[in-house]
Design brief:
107 residues, mainly alpha, 5 helices, 68% helix
Length: 107
């Protein structure tokens, strides 16, 4: 017995359209994870400058983001560069990592 016309028309809709992770996704995810780790390390160096509540909240946010980096990198519909750069700038507002890593001019 053949497929009914209605069932054969729905078949393309039942295909899993998610992308599978590629080597490029993995490299990108590792790069982003390292950037978030830099913010985490910077936060630890400045621990005495912040309340314990702030430290806990920022560390939790960093853990959540790092746990989802792989997922963000394989989502075809998300502009991962834009999302991650906004997240990094947000964390930089707290850690001021960019100020620590800017080259200084010495004469």
């Amino acid at each position: 017995m053949g497929m009914s016309r209605t069932h054969s028309n729905l078949a393309p809709l039942l295909v899993d359209t998610r992308r599978f992770p590629t080597a490029a996704d993995s490299i990108l995810a590792n790069f982003y994870r390292e950037e978030f780790l830099k913010h985490q390390e910077c936060l630890q160096r400045q621990r005495e400058s912040y309340s314990e509540c702030t430290i806990i909240e920022v560390e939790e946010a960093l853990r959540r983001v790092m746990a989802r980096v792989d997922e963000l990198c394989v989502q075809g519909e998300a502009d991962v560069d834009l999302v991650v750069s906004r997240l990094l700038r947000t964390f930089d507002g707290v850690t001021k990592l960019s100020a620590w890593s800017e080259p200084t001019n010495t004469h």
